[in-house]
Design brief:
With 155 residues, this protein is mainly beta. Helices cover 0% and strands 54% of the residues. The protein has no helices and 17 strands. The strands form 2 sheets. Strands 2, 4, 6, 7, 9, 10, 12, 13, 15, 16 and 17 form an 11-stranded parallel beta sheet that branches. A 6-stranded parallel beta sheet has the order 1-3-5-8-11-14, with no helix packed on it. The protein is globular. The model has no long low-confidence stretch (mean pLDDT 97).
Length: 155
């Protein structure tokens, strides 16, 4: 997998990549205490890992045309303890993950547009001050518990 832990302001760009069998997760964007990260994932498949994508405090991540499927834990997760994390999912699929398809934890904002969330233990999951903002064009169905966004905006 990719474990991106910058100590300063840094960028990560991943395109047309498949990651599987990663015990620590497919992609971890975890800035250090003085670090920040801007990450862009395009056409990335994260399948059969501990988790798909994990973004933590100080990260801003945009994911387009990508899939998190068949991971043991969450497909996409944003969580922080000391500073915000921002995750945007556009034209993505979160399916057959053992925990949440999309998890928005403490201090996180996850925006979803044209996203399919199906076959997960929980489709959309929020914790603490986390929020999932939908643009109203997503399909969340067929999860053990579907969940709902915290806000729905017009397109």
């Amino acid at each position: 997998g990719i474990d991106f832990q910058p100590s300063g302001a840094s960028g990560l760009f991943v395109s047309r990549t498949s990651i599987s069998n990663a015990n620590a997760g497919a992609i971890n964007v975890v800035p250090g205490a003085a670090g920040s990260a801007v990450a862009s994932l395009n056409e990335v498949t994260m399948q059969g890992n501990a988790r798909g994508l994990r973004a933590e405090g100080g990260a801003t991540v945009v994911v387009r045309d990508s899939v998190a499927s068949g991971n043991n834990l969450n497909g996409f997760v944003a969580i922080a303890w000391d500073r915000p994390v921002d995750l945007t999912l556009e034209n993505t699929v979160a399916s057959r993950n053992g925990a949440a398809g999309i998890h928005a934890g403490q201090l996180s904002t996850v925006r979803i547009s044209n996203t399919l969330v199906t076959g997960n233990s929980v489709g959309l999951e929020k914790a603490g001050s986390g929020g999932i903002v939908s643009f109203g064009n997503n399909r969340v169905h067929g999860n053990t518990t579907n969940g709902t966004p915290t806000a729905t905006l017009g397109q």
